[in-house]
Amino acid sequence: MRCCFSILFLLTGLLSCTQNENDRKAAEFASQMRSNNNQQSSPGQSASQLSGRNDTKPASFTQLKRVIPDELEGLPRQNLSGHTSVVNGITISRAQATYGKEPLKIELMIVDLGSDTHSSLLSEFNWYNKYISIDNENNYNKTFVIDGNKAFHEYDKVHKKGRISTIVYSRFGINLTGENVDMEMLLDAIDMLNINALNSIMES
């Protein structure tokens, strides 16, 4: 009986340490997000975004399509499309493309949300106000920061499928998914995107 109590006490201590570590990481992530939000705006942020107003009119999907590259990570673009939709009274524009060379495939989507506060309207960006850290032998899902922007990545280690999404300039959502690729390839692909072109759209 004494042995059972000792084991139970040990397990309780381990669970407590794990929970404390997760809480610490969550607090650090939240602190980093607050710090990023309190920093001076990135080039191109409008006064309405800084004041918290959400009346920014999204760009046309035609403008977004011009940002989509012809090639990504050495893979040729196979198609390109775009459309504008209204979700809960909010207008959202998007452009998307598929790149591939068997067996590799990458899909890119760029969305003009008008404001990052609208990110919850799309399933691709419902991680935006969360802290996520899950890692096991089969997959992982994590929120992180890339170039000062909130981001999320997930990867299926068994089927070699992954996704990275981020929001830049507190307005544009970028979502990359890949099949038969590793996470490094997706990270390199997002680095290849011309983010400055989105800033130009804001200033036009």
> Numbering strands along the chain, what is their spatial order in the largest sheet?
1-2-3-4-9-8-7-6-5
The total count of helices amounts to 5
Low-pLDDT runs: 1-20, 22-53
| H/E element order | HHHEEEEEEEEEHH
Gyration radius, in Å: 20 Å
- Outline, from the CA principal axes? globular
- The tally of structural domains comes to 1
Q: Main beta sheet, described? A: 9 strands, antiparallel
How far apart are the first and last residues' alpha carbons, in Å? 74 Å
Number of strands: 9
Q: Give the helix/strand class.
A: alpha+beta
Per CATH, the architecture is: 3-Layer(aba) Sandwich
Q: If you average the pLDDT, what whole number results?
A: 80
Q: Any idea of the CATH class?
A: Alpha Beta
What does this structure look like?
This protein has helices at 2-38, 47-50, 61-65, 183-192, 195-203; strands at 71-72, 75-87, 90-101, 104-112, 133-135, 139-146, 149-156, 161-168, 172-179. The protein is an alpha+beta fold and 204 residues long. The protein has a single domain, classed as Protein Transport Mog1p, Chain A, CATH 3.40.1000. The chain has a 9-stranded antiparallel beta sheet with strand order 1-2-3-4-9-8-7-6-5.
